[in-house]
Backbone:
């Protein structure tokens, strides 16, 4: 992923507080006489000052800051930044710097640590070694697969993608349902309070939250119907797909009905008897959708995903696998989810627990061939996560999204 060296290079540690030292030969004679000054390209990129006075207190504050230097267009630099935000282990400072050698990012885990420059997986392993505990941001080692297991590896990659998309959708529906229950409870207190306690802004935010969740769920269903179901049918598993597609058809009217109910709420007088009646009815319908969706995902994971290895083996036997890498099938599936992996990517990711999120990031980085698109995805996620308290990221995905939704314009 990205332009990174296949082997990391450890730099000699610089004295605490001093700029990192990547030597470059100064101008002067190549041999004999006239020793030149050594200048760090990173120091030049980061600071226009040649000499500054050192504030001991500021130095102590900077001691624990993790610093990432690299090209603004390098996906590895952005992946490091996102991984460190999920770690929530220390303040993170990112400095776009084209001075990095060959465009490779540089990681410095503290002012007292040496600079590290290398491949993405190696740098992520250094992050895990320095900041213990979950989530583990480095992907597990993947030994070269034997030919007999290529189908299994490709199938597991697609299955992992499907499962994580299920978890995100489930949690966002859970978050919308919890917010709606809170609004119903507020509405019940209206008579005692003598004033409206549900605000129009809450209804609008609820509509946006549900609307985004609906878009992700619909796009996920289309991905299954376009990429997975046709080959599952041909592999002599027609009953599985027939049942799943029937459930997709039942869910669509339910989802549209809830969307219309939310639109109706926006036209009603806040706190009126009709407003409260629609609110309660909406809560009941959303709970039914939640239950149906959870059961549907459970059946898919039990009946459909275990068959993917046989499907992939059939594809190979038929010569329908143009991409020989294991990631070709998952790349094809992800390629159909344009909205989820562009405008809605931060939303989708806030439905995952930290360990799930870094697993999905690993999938995305392996399966996204367009570097500019990958950088855009990682940047958008980093910018949203930086708006959140680290404790929210680690505690509850739905609280994280509600926090970001309130702060969004």
Residues:
């Amino acid at each position: 992923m990205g332009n990174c060296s296949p082997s990391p290079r450890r730099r000699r540690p610089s004295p605490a507080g001093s700029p990192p030292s990547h030597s470059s030969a100064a101008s002067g004679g190549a041999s004999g006489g006239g020793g030149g000054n050594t200048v760090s390209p990173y120091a030049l990129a980061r600071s226009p000052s040649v000499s500054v006075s050192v504030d001991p207190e500021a130095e102590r504050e900077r001691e624990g800051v993790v610093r990432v230097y690299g090209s603004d267009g390098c996906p590895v630099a952005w992946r490091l930044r996102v991984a460190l935000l999920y770690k929530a282990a220390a303040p993170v400072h990112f400095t776009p710097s084209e001075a990095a050698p060959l465009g490779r990012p540089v990681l410095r885990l503290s002012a007292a640590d040496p600079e590290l420059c290398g491949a993405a997986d190696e740098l992520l392993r250094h992050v895990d070694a320095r900041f213990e505990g979950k989530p583990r941001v480095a992907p597990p080692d993947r030994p070269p697969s034997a030919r007999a297991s290529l189908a299994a590896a490709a199938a597991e990659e697609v299955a992992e993608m499907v499962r994580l998309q299920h978890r995100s959708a489930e949690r966002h529906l859970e978050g919308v349902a919890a917010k709606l229950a809170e609004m119903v409870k507020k509405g019940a207190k209206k008579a005692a309070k003598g004033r409206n306690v549900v605000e129009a802004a809450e209804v609008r935010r609820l509509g946006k939250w549900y609307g985004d969740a609906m878009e992700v769920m619909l796009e996920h269903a289309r991905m299954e119907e376009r990429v997975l179901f046709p080959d599952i049918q041909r592999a002599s598993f027609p009953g599985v797909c027939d049942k799943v597609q029937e459930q997709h058809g039942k869910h669509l009217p339910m989802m549209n009905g809830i969307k219309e109910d939310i639109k109706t709420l926006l036209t009603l007088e806040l706190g009126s008897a009709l407003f409260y009646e629609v609110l309660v009815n909406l809560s009941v319908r959303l709970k039914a959708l939640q239950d149906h969706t959870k059961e549907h995902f459970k059946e898919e994971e039990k009946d459909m995903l275990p068959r993917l290895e046989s499907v992939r083996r059939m594809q190979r036997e038929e010569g329908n696998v143009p991409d020989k890498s294991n990631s070709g099938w998952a790349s094809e599936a992800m390629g159909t989810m344009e909205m989820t992996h562009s405008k809605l990517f931060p939303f989708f990711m806030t439905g995952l627990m930290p360990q799930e999120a870094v697993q999905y990031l690993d999938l995305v980085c392996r399966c996204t061939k367009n570097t500019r698109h990958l950088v855009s995805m990682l940047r958008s996620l980093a910018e949203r996560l930086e708006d959140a308290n680290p404790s929210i990221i680690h505690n509850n995905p739905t609280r994280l999204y509600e926090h970001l939704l309130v702060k969004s314009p």
Observations:
- The longest strand covers residues 66-70.
- The radius of gyration is 26 Å.
- Confidence is low (pLDDT under 50) at residues 2-52.
